[in-house]
Amino acid sequence: MIKGSIVALVTPMNPDGGLNEAALRDLVEFHIDQGTDAIVAVGTTGEAATLDYEEHCQVIRCVVEQARGRLPVIAGTGSNCTREAIELTQKAKDLGADACLLVTPYYNKPTQEGLYLHFKAVAEAVAIPQILYNVPSRCGCDLLPETVARLAPLPNIVGIKEASADPVARARAIRLSCPEFPIYSGDDASARQLCLEGGAGVISVTANVAPRLMHQMIAAALSGDAATAAALDAKLAGLHQALFLESNPIPVKWALKALGLIPEGIRLPLTWLAPRYQDAVRQAMTHAGVL
Question: pTM of the prediction?
Answer without folding.
Answer: 0.97
